[in-house]
Amino acid sequence: MLAQSLLAYILFLDSYETQTLGSTLQAKQNEARTYTLPQIVSRAEETSELLRAQRLKVASTEAQGRQARAWQNPSLSAELGRLRDTQNNAMTYDFRITQPLFFPGKLAKQYEIYQREKDFLELEALDLQNIIKLEASYYAYAYFIAELKSRTITSRIERISLMRTYMRAQAFASPAKIVQRNIVSNQLIALQKSLNASLAEAESSWQRLNIYLNEPQKIELQLSWLTGLRDIDREKFLAKVKAGNRRLKSRRLLLARLEAELAYQKSVPLPDVSITAFYRREALEIPGANQFYGGAVNIPLPLVNTNRAGIEAAEKRLEAARAESEFTEREIMQTANAVHAEYSQKRKLLADFHAEQIPKLEQQMRYADRELKLGRIDLLSYLELELQTHEAIQAFYDNQLELVRAITQMIHLMGESVEYNGDLYVVQVD
Fold it and tell me: Do residues 415 and 130 touch, judged by C-beta distance below 8 A?
């Protein structure tokens, strides 16, 4: 009697899961757009307001640089008066035009500051572009895996709920059966808690992913499991980080900008010249009209203000930036070592458990289903196997997500040494 009831329960469960999951997946496929990882990367790059803002900052700084090289406008003055004496009552005219001139080389030094700032912002834009693509990739996997976890837990809840229903239907239950029923009930409570956490994680990952996609509704993902990952030589990896890391390069550009600013501050006391040309006319009656032509040069003397405080401030900023650059380089290289170690450890786990083993675990569960219905294994052994199977699959999902996180961090650290467009295996290219 027990074997027949369990057989009916197993057959019903298989049919229910197949129909439910099939109809759910079909409905989602009909409603939602489907994205591959390269498509996610491309859309995240195209729709990012932050990237547009950063490019506008670059254009703004470039325009400021052009303005910094512009000459000052000339000034025009005109004077009109009347000369009166015992012999004359006539008008006088005076016209002057003055052109300020910067000290030679000062405009070039000021322009260089904006040029270095533009280079810095351009590199920051490239780094931001890479970060956006990598974060979108990570959250795509996080959402994909969280959805799979939720489906797996939902399937387990349905399976164990049907089992509890069957056990409650038994008219007479021995103490052992009562204990088994309590075990099943407690496991359902734990599974419901796990499901709620998994659903919350899936929703959180989707919202974070949709920051970059800006889709009106949830999407379907076509992502591949990471397989066949090779070991990465640590020294070669560190060399690529040191050569291509954009944070390191941006620090060097920042130093170049501060050096240009220091050079400009040193040129501030150099006197800027003003050249004036004038014409004056006095329309005298006796002895006749007088006309004056001439020019003048105005040179300020840097005696009181030699910009010592400005120069000192620029020197201190440069010194502080050099200290920060030293720390940044050490931090990045230490982070690269840590990420490489994490990648190597997680990669080794793929040798113990990989995607091809999931069908084998499912086959083991089908075997356990048959043995349970034939009464050749007890319920507790079946539940233990079911729990271990679930934990093994969950561990595979977790390891995949941790590998994605490590690989995206490695790609970001290598910066310009690699070009990422949705292929996570690019990290393995020598």
Answer: yes
Helices (H) and strands (E) counted in the chain, each on its own, are: 10, 6
Please state whether the peptide bond connecting residue 175 to the residue before it is cis, i.e. omega within 30 degrees of 0: no
Would residue 17 be called left, alpha or beta, if left means φ above 0 and alpha means ψ between -120 and 50 degrees?
A: alpha
DSSP one-letter string for 176-216: HHHHHHHHHHHHHHHHHHHHHHHHHHHHHHHHHHHHHH--S
Select the highest-mean-pLDDT range: 8-12, 85-89, 270-274, 370-374: 270-274
pLDDT-derived band at 4, boundaries 50, 70, 90 = very low
CB atoms within 10 A of CB 193: 11
Residue 275 β-bridge partners: 99, 297
**pLDDT of 175 strictly over 80:** no
Cα dihedral across residues 212, 216, 217, 220: positive or negative: negative
Which amino acid is it at 206? W
| Residues 160-164, mean pLDDT to the nearest whole number | 74
Closest by CA position to 43, among listed 280, 248, 210: 210
Over residues 18-46, the mean pLDDT reads 71
